[in-house]
C-alpha cells in the first residue's frame, strides 16, 4: 500500500467542538480505526456516518478508467460519509481509507436524520458545513473535467500552496516534498504524465524544483489563469 505521501501530512490537533459536533458525540458510538483498513468502500450499503476523533482518513473515488482520485484528507473534527443523509437505499459514493489509526464516532443514519429534523439550528449548521465541503469537491471535479489532467495538476499546486506554502523571494514555496507519483494521486493521472507537465512548467519558468523535491511556484498567476481560477478563499481552496 502506497501511503507514504499521506504520512507526510501533519497530524492536527482536535478542533474546538461545535454544537453539531457535541450533539454527534452524545448520540454516537466510539469505534477504533486502524491504519490500512477502510471505514467504507465506494458502492457499499450506507447506514452510518462518522465523526473523526483522532487519526487521519483519506477520501477518494475511482475514475471510469480505474484510477484513484484523492479528494480529501480528513482529520480530527471532520465528518465523513455525510453524502448519504436523507437518501433512500443509500450507498457510499466515495471510499474512506484510514491513514493514521485513531477513533471515530459512529452515527446511525436514521438517528442523525431524526436529530437534525427536530433541531433546526443544528440542521442549519450541518447544511452550511456540507455546502462548504460540496463546494470544495465541485471545484476539484470542475478543474479535472474542464481542463483535464493539466487542470487537475495546476489546481493541486495552487491548493498545496494554500495549505503548505511559505513566502519565498522568487514566489511561493510548497514547504513539503511530493514525488510525481504522489502528485498523480491527487490528479487521477499517471506518474509519467505528471512528469511531462512539470517539465513543461519548469521550461516556461512557472515553477522550479528544489534539490529536496519541494516545488517553488514562481508564477502562480499563470496557473490560476490557465484554469479560470475564481480566487476562492483558502478555506475552500486547500488540499484538505
From TrEMBL:
Entry-linked SUPFAM superfamilies: cAMP-binding domain-like, Winged helix' DNA-binding domain
Domain HTH crp-type intervals: 147-221
UniProt keyword annotations, A-Z: Activator, DNA-binding, Transcription, Transcription regulation
Residues of the Cyclic nucleotide-binding domain: 35-116
InterPro entries linked: cNMP-bd_dom, cNMP-bd_dom_sf, Env_Response_Regulators, HTH_CRP, RmlC-like_jellyroll, WH-like_DNA-bd_sf, WH_DNA-bd_sf
PANTHER family on file: CRP FAMILY TRANSCRIPTIONAL REGULATORY PROTEIN (PTHR24567), HTH-TYPE TRANSCRIPTIONAL REGULATOR ARCR (PTHR24567:SF74)
Designated name of the protein: CRP/FNR family transcriptional regulator
